[in-house]
Amino acid sequence: MKFLVGVALSCAVFVSAAAPAWAQAVNAGLAGGKQIEGKIINLTDSEMTLQTTNETQVYKVNGDILKALKLGQGSDVIVDGSLLQTGRISRLSTYNVEVELDNGEFIDFVLSPEGRRTLGVGDRVVITSIMTPSRCQKIYRLESYSLMARDIKAKVIVVATEQPTPSVVRPIPTPVQPAPVQVQPEAPVRGLW
After folding, report:
1. Among the ranges 1-5, 14-18, 37-41, 157-161, which has the highest mean pLDDT value?
2. CA–CA dist 32, 82 (Å, integer)
3. What is the DSSP letter of 105?
4. Alpha-carbon gap, residue 2 to 61, rounded angstroms
5. pTM of the entire predicted model
6. H-type alpha helices, 62-190
7. What is the 3-state secondary structure (H, E, C) of 38-49?
8. Beta carbons of 61 and 152 less than 8 angstroms apart
9. β-pair type (56-60, 76-80)
10. How far is residue 167 CA from its own chain's centroid?
11. Which helix (H) or strand (E) holds 154?
């Protein structure tokens, strides 16, 4: 009996310690075609915690990318998903995968051998850059996608703006009309006829 109580107690401690990790799924806030603004509140070598206006979100990212972009804790950033597509795998065959995008469209991709081993029907996925041909796009499980440099931008905060100097307005002079010239009638010229 003491053994069962000890096992139950250790399970309860494990569940309560793991609960915060379940509450913040990695990359859960990432959405194709959308931008998320926030402040970096925590940073590790592999994750960035972002505080947005409504919630806290955790993103997988290589710490070297943030160092190269000169971003750290307290930096205001934009997670830019405008070049990404997100969706759910709706059909999986030996060589192809069909993805239902968040906007309701369906697209098909040829799977690599690695993709066949790691992806399953119902998985949330990220499809890289919509600017590249479909044969060059890559599919990642949402929770394993690591943000790239093109997905993160420093938020520019304008502190002060330069006031434009007013231009001097010079009045346009009105044209002066010359005074009318009066010509004296000449004496008639006598003709020679």
Report:
1. 37-41
2. 6
3. -
4. 45
5. 0.61
6. 63-68, 113-118
7. EEEEEECCCEEE
8. yes
9. unpaired
10. 39
11. strand 152-154
Sign of the torsion formed by the C-alpha atoms of 45, 46, 52 and 57? negative
User: What span, in angstroms and rounded, lies between the C-alpha atoms of 129 and 136?
Assistant: 9
- 35-39, 60-64, 167-171 — which is least confidently predicted? 167-171
Question: Residues 155, 55, 17, CA angle at the centre, nearest 5°?
Answer: 125
Which stretch, 30-39, 149-158, 165-174, has highest mean pLDDT?
Answer: 30-39
Confirm if 101 and 32 have CB atoms less than 8 A apart. Answer: yes
Q: Locate tokens 């309860």: which residue?
A: 12
Are 65 and 72 contacting, i.e. CB atoms less than 8 angstroms apart?
Answer: no
Q: Which CATH architecture has domain 23-154?
A: Beta Barrel (2.40)
Rounded to the nearest 5°, which phi and psi values hold at 8? -65, -40
Q: Which residues of 24-54 are buried (b: 16+ CB within 10 A; e: fewer)?
A: eebbebbbbeeebebebeebeeebbbbeeee
pLDDT of residue 192: 61
Q: Rounded to whole angstroms, how far apart are CA atoms 47 and 49?
A: 7
Tell me the pLDDT tens digit for each residue of 144-169: 888 888 888 887 765 656 666 666 66
Tokens found for residue 63: 């710490």
